[in-house]
Design a protein that fits this description.
heterodimer; A: 162 residues; alpha+beta; Nuclear Transport Factor 2, Chain: A; 6-stranded mixed beta sheet; 7 strands; 44% strand; globular; B: 419 residues; Rieske Iron-sulfur Protein; Naphthalene 1,2-dioxygenase Alpha Subunit, Chain A, domain 1; 4-stranded antiparallel beta sheet; disordered N terminus; binds FE2/S2 (inorganic) cluster; binds fe (ii) ion
């Protein structure tokens, strides 16, 4: 796949579909598959806007390998204690930039609604995704995903990835 | 029935137990307790943490924060000194500053643009002399009498504390020598702020005060801790208090782990899985920060601060109360200014351990909330706290709840409740 050879519409479609598959994977609780959206040497960060705006590095979650993503999932399945909850991601307004033959960047808005045990749904987190996508074996994979959340006062805890 | 009869007043006689210590659950739910705490503790004879000097490196830097639920401002003035004052305009009470932080020459209230200097002194009042001879402030109006309400403030090794009280003992006396030494151990050289994390917990702030004085839960609730030996109740450690039992200091040494003993101790414990391995263990790789072998420190300072060292993560956690059934927890992570790049990266990566998404800390918010949910209609019933003997004594081990009892005894004395 040569990204520069695609039409704008084709590229937009492919990248938005990647985003849709990514969020459906999380919302369906297929978290064991979630690391498969990334290359081995990836960066995944969930960063408060407050810190991003000041150039400060501390993230709620910071992984610099696919194996660290795997560990997050194993830990939330086997180690961490938390109340059962359900996410629904809404992703929109994706803007693509920096397209090369094998990579592209995109920036999207996201909102995550969380439903807790009592059946109440609330807006849990809103912010942006800053993604860097690369072509590997004709597939689109995430090389970098930075989640910058406006909702910088996290409600109770953050365990399921965004 | 008059309205006043509907307002409950704190019960000044707490339930007792022959073998342990009881805390009546209404302390976590009653507005009457909450209001009394705001006056007697947060607005009373205690020093509250308001920030780190490293957050305000330059003249003109300010941050807004809270003591209990009272908004306050911390500034660094043109002389380089730290000032703490109430964030409430002397005119008609508006918030003077609505941003979390920034740099400014003047603090100006947006409502009628009264302007204060960085020490809180009133410097300007628009239309003070009226317009075209009409209006204006009365003759006796004196700028110097209408500044922001200044608090007493004091710093120790870059930690800023403030109090509304004119009567409370000095900060040094309030903290006591053991806590001061522990602060000096961590804040032994200039720090670099690495970022903040905020979380809102739907429970009473004192449930977190208990949680952070509780070495008992840490092995049992936080499997990640136990599995990777960051903390185990079987490790060498102590649970110490200051003379007044307000504060506590728990520490542990990871190198003291003993596999045979731990297999035996944790054999029936849900949260111990020797087979849980990390695919990428870099998150646990660090370098010793201190040469005393201590790898975990949780210092809980009355009323609103925790200072922590967990592996190479260093942070302060400030509690901001929000009614009887909620509080915000603000984590400020730091390293040392002289950290090399590798060390700085270790701290950034190990931040995965702490905060609202932290491998070893995410459960604490949940623990607070499950208590709050269970006790909301249980006036009269109380907890039973007895691990380690049921008395507030220093312990040379980690199988104790003694510092929780110390906290409550001090709390009762501050609220004027019979011991
Ligand atoms: S309330 Fe601040 S200037 Fe009027
Ligand atoms: Fe804990």
């Amino acid at each position: 796949m040569n990204l520069t050879a695609l039409s704008e519409i084709e590229l937009q479609f492919k990248l938005e579909r990647l985003l849709a598959e990514y969020v459906q994977c999380i919302d369906d609780d297929r978290l064991e598959q979630w690391p498969e959206f990334f290359v081995d040497r990836c960066v995944y960060k969930i960063l408060a806007l407050e810190n991003a705006a000041r150039g400060m590095p501390v993230a709620a979650i910071f992984c610099d390998s696919k194996n660290m993503l795997v560990d997050r999932v194993v830990s939330l399945r086997k180690a961490n204690i938390y109340e059962r909850h359900q996410y629904r991601h809404i992703v929109s307004s994706t803007i693509i930039s920096g397209v090369t033959t094998r990579s592209a960047k995109m920036r999207s808005n996201y909102a995550v609604y969380r439903t807790r045990g009592q059946g109440v749904t609330e807006l849990y987190s809103a912010g942006i995704y800053e993604d860097r996508v690369v072509v590997v074996d004709d597939c689109l994979l995430l090389e970098e995903k930075i989640v910058i959340y406006d909702t910088d006062r996290i409600d109770t805890l953050l365990v399921t990835p965004l | 029935m008059t309205i006043s009869e509907n307002i409950s007043t704190p019960d000044d006689v707490w339930p007792t137990s022959a073998s342990g210590f009881c805390v009546p659950y209404e302390v976590f739910t009653d507005k009457a307790y909450y209001d009394r705490e705001q006056e007697a503790i947060f607005r009373g004879d205690a020093w509250s943490f308001v920030g780190l000097e490293a957050e305000l490196p330059n003249s003109g830097d300010y941050k807004s924060t809270f003591i209990g639920e009272t908004p306050v401002l911390v500034t660094r003035d043109n002389d380089g000194n730290i000032n703490v004052m109430q964030n409430r305009c002397a005119h008609r009470g508006a918030l003077v500053c609505r941003e979390r932080r920034g740099n400014t020459r003047r603090l100006q209230c947006v409502y009628h643009q009264w302007a204060y200097d960085l020490k809180g002194q009133l410097r300007g009042v628009p239309f003070r002399a009226g317009i075209a001879g009409k209006g204006g402030m009365p003759e006796g109006f004196d700028l110097t009498e209408h500044g922001l309400n200044r608090l007493r403030s004091a710093s120790i090794n870059g930690l800023i504390f403030a109090t509304f009280s004119r009567a409370v003992v000095s900060l040094e006396e309030f903290l006591g020598p053991m806590i001061i030494a522990s602060i000096q151990r961590i804040f032994n050289r200039p720090i670099e702020i690495l970022g903040d994390q905020r979380q809102y917990i739907h429970g009473n702030w004192k449930l977190y005060a208990e949680n952070t004085r509780d070495p008992y839960h840490a092995s049992l609730l936080h499997l990640f801790h136990t599995t990777f030996g960051l903390y185990r109740s079987s490790q060498t450690g102590e649970c110490l208090m200051d003379g007044a039992h307000r504060h506590s200091m728990l520490y542990a040494k990871a190198s003291s782990s003993n596999t045979a003993l731990e297999r035996e101790v944790f054999k029936d414990v849900r949260s111990y899985d020797e087979n849980f391995k990390l695919a990428d263990s870099s998150v646990l790789q660090g370098r010793p920060d201190f040469d005393d072998g201590i790898t975990l420190v949780i210092m809980a300072l009355f009323p609103n601060l925790v200072i922590q060292q967990i592996a190479n993560t260093l942070a302060v956690r400030q509690s901001v109360t929000d009614g009887a059934d909620g509080f915000e927890l603000v984590w400020t992570h730091f390293g040392y200014l002289d950290d090399d790049e590798e060390m700085r990266n270790i701290r950034i990566k190990q931040s995965n351990l702490i905060g609202p998404a932290g491998y070893v800390s995410m459960e604490d918010g949940e623990a607070v909330e499950i208590v709050q949910k269970a006790v909301r209609r249980d006036r009269g019933a109380g907890s039973y706290i007895a691990m380690g003997g049921g008395v507030a004594e220093d312990a040379d081990h980690l199988v104790t709840e003694s510092a929780i009892i110390g906290f409550w005894q001090h709390y009762k004395s501050m609220l004027g409740i019979a011991p």
